[in-house]
Amino acid sequence: MSYETPEHLLYTTDHEWLQRDDERPDEVTIGITDFAQEQVGDVVYLELPAAGSALTAGEPFGEIESAKTVAELFAPIGGELIAVNAELEERPELVNESPYDDGWIVRVRMSRPAELDGLLNVHAYRELIVEDER
Amino acid sequence: MSAQPLANEDFGARLSWDRGASGRRAVDVPTWRGDETPLPDSRLLRNSLSLPELSQGELARYYTSLSRRNYGIDSGAYPLGSCTMKYNPKLNELIASLPGFAEAHPQAGAEDAQGTLRTLFELRQGLAELTGLPAVSLAPAAGAQGELAGVLMISAALDARGDGAPRRRVLVPDSAHGTNPATAAMAGYTVTQIPTAADGSLDRRTIERELDETVAAVMVTVPNTLGLWERGIEQVAKRIHEAGAYLYADGANLNAIVGRVRYGDLGFDVAHLNLHKSFSTPHGGGGPGAGPVCCSEELAPYLPTPVLEEDEYGDVRLVAPEHSIGRLQQFHGNVGVLLRAYAYMRSLGLDGLRAVSGQAVLNANYLRCLLHGHYDLPYDRPVLHEVVFSGSRQRRQHGVRTYDIAKRLIDHGVHPPTVYFPLIVEEALMIEPTETEPPETIEALADALIAIAEEAAVDPDALRGAPWSAPIGRLDETTAARRPLLRWQAPAQAAADQ
Amino acid sequence: MTTPSRSGSPHPYIPATEADRELMLARVGVADLESLFADLPAAWRDPEIDLPAALTEPELIALLTQRAAANVQPSTPSFLGAGAYRRSVPSIVSYLTSRSEFATAYTPYQPEISQGTLQSGFEYQSVVCELTGMDVSNTGLYDVGSATAEACLLAARVTKRRAVALLEPIHPHTADVVRTYARGAELRVDQIDSPVAMHEAHACLVVQQPDYLGAIVDLEPLAEAAHAQGALLVAVADPFALGLLRPPGDAGADIVTGEGRDLAGSPAYGGPSLGLFAARSQFLRQMPGRIVGRTHELRSPADGVDPRTGYVLTLQAREQFIRRERATSNVSTAQSLVALAFTIAVQALGPQGLRESAELCYQRAHDAARRIAALPGYEAPDRGPWFQEFLVRGPMPAPQLAFQLALRGIAAGLDVSSRAEPEARDALLFAVTEATPDAHIDDLVRALSDIGDRA
After folding, report:
1. Nearest-CA neighbor of C298 among B411, B69, B465, B412?
2. What is the pTM (predicted TM-score) of this model?
3. Which residue in C322, C324, C325 has the most chain A C-beta atoms within 10 A of its own C-beta, making it the best mutation to test that interface?
4. Residue C38 and residue B381: Cα distance in Å, rounded?
5. A positions 47-66 inside 8 Å of C (CB)
6. ipTM over 0.95
7. Cross-chain Cβ contact A70/C322 below 8 Å
8. Tens digit of pLDDT for each residue in B71-85?
9. What three-state secondary structure class fits B444?
10. How far apart are CA C208 and CA C293, in angstroms?
């Protein structure tokens, strides 16, 4: 099985992706990877905090549910949640159909952009999912 | 033979509201002929009520049709692992329906309910004997409520010795039923998971490492959910007590050991039983059950209210234990279920109950041997009441999942086993035949599973599309969860919501 | 001894014969049954266990018929209520629920062969929503006490508050169950006499409808008071009374619980019971218990057949078997068969029948109360509009009056004379329903009159 892993993103060992904003260097968009959406299965619901909430790196900030499983979403970096993808309320399937685009989950204003240095680049992430596959 | 509903009729689309006609009714109500009392102010009253309007015959047919779209233990084999789906003796239904029992009012004084109370007292004595735990409350309505009682009792006992504040953790094996960690959390504890060792027992090193002054209790299912004896549990019990914690037994699997070994003797402090499993009371499609909690003398003062006591005149009374955790229900538990369980216990006696565990274990092992080689068996050793196979070979080689194997069994006229549990076994198929199945049924079950394994190789789509012969095919559970439709709505309202 | 002394089939419930067993043991490759238990610790194997001897079916029927006769018989006039009421349950109910396809099924984990349980569960949720005026219902919890406790836990979760307020008069056992469940969640439980005593630490206000002493409560101002403090209103309502009374949802309740046992069948000394639990849709994903959803077959249109409608357990990610220690509740087995009985009973009565039956209950109870209050030496203290339960104060202290009635073969209403409410002082709480026989009411009035004459 091959999974899509866009080159321009950063990744986490919890199978989340982050995209930096060229205009606003302290903001990132976060979602789950193609591999993760396949593992979770058909997404039926996301439990997410309201915009304005504080995120702590490494701590769970929300949940993603399929009909038979539930997984926690972990904050890859700390900061303030500035937007939640409202589309997902009506169409949670976007996470499956378009994990890197329409299925984005939250936008965060980072308190310590240096935390990004600890994340995986695409090559490291590709190795990780090959290992997880075994 | 009676007529079947039309094969392609969309039976489920028409609820009771969509049947009948305005003005029809199924029962009549006497007319009041005395002095009229004015009704209260209209702001306190309902001004409309939408309920179906069916004649009695239509209502009988609708629910009879529904019953025919269901499968019970009287329909055929029901080898649902961990659920002990044994035959439900009809005698027990008769007993529970005797008017003196059925019509007893829960607020009646003990002197007016001695028939019920004496019977429950004897059940209580029997459960104490069978578990080796001398104190019992019959109040919990089901296993999970019995668990909550047990963990709250441990919490109260720790508080009483001034040790409640630091002990905030409960250790639970990774093979446990979900109710165990959920109960521990409900009782205010954090849960630490204990892995299963290669032999299927608890990982002793992890327990040794985790046992410290922050642990309140360890919850263990005996035998465990792999159908295996928890080796060395009596030594683990000693260690747990030395560390100042309590040992809880999830008694869901009592059927494997009833009459042969007792929780109390092994060092367990408290246990709950599932009378709707081991004691044959019908499960009713999801209850009512009964989950009595049994404990040591040390924990007895904390039992939930009420407990039964015999007074100096030989009468049985309902009393509150000295330091009771309180009530779990408004009244005295699922008494009708308890009466059935008593009738079961008396039908069998000790020899009969030992024959139950003996035959339940032989049946599971017989099935294990018949299926050996056809499916992977991750813990390949003699089992007790149930055996956990894995469909991982079928998944790897033929791309069919345990889910598909289970659905295909329906076409063989059998209820599928428990699947994907315990969580530690990949593609788990957890099979518990129980003692009430004859060898022919076990052989037929094995033949069906073998035929399915063979079919997986030559025609995997036959599995992926199954069941083919059930009243309805596979259902879209994803859409059900994404866009929940949870009640009947008038057609106009339903259309507006679409 | 491991097998009974009888040869061949040892017991009607265990089909394997001695011959079967030998063949099976040979296949398994062990010499005897005992070898299968070799893992059990030898020191504790086969202990002495003292159980009464086994009985055959006729012996057991004889014994338990005698036991059942040792209870007070249904023919005895009884005016006990206080949480359990004699109802006219349509005879069709037990006939249909005793069908073994319903009664002997497990929780519907395989929807293709469980549509009976599942579609009935959907019918139940629909009935409960209609009666309570709520958006969503689960398939039922254990009983009204535990359902109310779960409502308090839900309220505490969503408001992130650490206390709940119970408005008196509430059933003392309901309050007790809330306190038991509150231990684990570390919630404070305040029993208050007026909504004025609420404050912003309270997650919810719990109100019984009709209240413990029988009065019909105007829920709307209580909902306003609770909401003004940012708390939820939990109404603990008698579903039969809701055939007549305003749905709590219309009056502003956020969660409604109730006891369904009486409409479903016999009191059975309190159980099997049935805890109703319904809520506003915003709390759906916080609800405890099983929920049935409507959906359709997965088959593709290419099959040439339209997908048919079916029912499944849904929103299961809330539940213990998936979410484990983060589940909304630990509940697994609940009271499904009682919920089925409740559904059929309400649907058999239908919209007219339920209303007529509730009004009949109201009329009969008020008539009985009037007759009693008219007796010299008796009064029925007034607490405003009421439904089926009333207080009676007689010419002697309440316990003595109950004793005098017992001497005359009548079970009096519950003694509530030690309660704080002034109207309850020296009073018994009598229940009269649509199912109380006329002759029993006549017996009661005659007995009270006789007792009054001799006082």
Report:
1. B465
2. 0.96
3. C322
4. 12
5. 47, 65-66
6. yes
7. yes
8. 999 999 999 999 999
9. helix
10. 29
